[in-house]
Structure prediction request, 207 residues.
Amino acid sequence: MNENHEQEPLENQGQAPDQVGADPSETPVNPAASWYAVHTYSGYENRVRESLLNLVRSDFRLKDKIIEVLIPTEEVAEIREGKKRVSSKKLFPGYVVVHMEMSDELQTLVRSTPGVTGFVGPRRTPVPLTTDEVDHILGRMKETEETPRPKVVFECGEKVKVIEGPFESFTGYVSEINQDRGRVTVMVDILGRSTPVELDFLQVDKL
Prediction:
């Protein structure tokens, strides 16, 4: 799955895991269920998700068969017109992930959903996602929900302008980047001396 795509402005894309049970305490637990990646036409992710959830809502027999339908997203932040704006971006455009018990009947049901092109796997044969893959997806969603990821990515040596804080309007170049902390060190000219200033990603912009 390619992560370097912009979000399609089709609908509100921010999606948390959808428990199909009306009451979270009644969410079915099915040890036979696994997570599967389903490929969709571009821009059809929400429609596919809603179609599958509507099938579950209309047929109680599916409640413990199709447990969750998820559009993996991450929260990204940027500064626009001096204000911090947070939006959702798909991690894997063109895909939804489904927590379900696989069977020939359910495989056909999912495949026949409008907008679905097939399951991810050799010759589109459904192959469950690994535990590490699922943990990565869910962990990234939770992590960026709590701390949105900066939309702009910087490189060492790149010229930038400070747009927020005590050094606003200063310009300089990036000397160090800390992706984990979302911080960047910028060398700015203060009183004729090149001085390192550590800033948040959202406090600087590319020139």
User: Anything to note?
Assistant: The two ends are 31 Å apart (CA to CA). The chain is about 20% helix and 35% strand.
